[in-house]
Amino acid sequence: MKFFDMLKVLPKSLWVTTCNSGSCNGCDIEIVATISPRYDIERFGMKLVGTPRHADVLIVTGPVTKFMHSKLLRIYNQMPDPKVVVVVGNCGCSGDVFYKSYSLDGPVDNIIPVDVYVHGCPPRPEAIIEGVAKAVLKLEALDKAGEPQGEDVGDSVLERVAL
Questions:
Q1: DSSP letters of 87-117?
Q2: Is-above-0.85 flag for pTM?
Q3: What average pLDDT does the segment 102-123 reach?
Q4: Which CA distances in Å does 54 have to 18, 34, 64, 81, 129?
Q5: Beta strand 84-88 pairing with 116-118
């Protein structure tokens, strides 16, 4: 499906929140670029919000340090259902060069279920917008299915939510 076709399925404004779980801020800078006038993600109905209690999509950057493990879980559990998780950057997707570090509990899918992966170091803003658009499709499918997404995520490794 083409990018603009994905955006046509957006039934309502999508509220997005972010979590830096130990990244170098490269991915975060690219996320900020998506809300800049050049890309202006809000014209597609996607809005960054400051609280996970209002968000539909969680964007996570970084490889998840031991310090951020419990905080990431708390943010995820505060989001209302249905919710979608997008991981931005190689560190969050796979741990990248930090994979065997003693201070990591990640990658992100070791902690919470991940729906969309956006690879790159850092990924381009267009790739991030496409990843969020894919999250819209996933969110819409979850909404149509009407199935609850399950219980709160604990400290154990979870299976990936599959549609």
A1: EESHHHHH-GGGTT-TTB--SGGGTS---EE
A2: no
A3: 90
A4: 12, 20, 23, 11, 20
A5: parallel
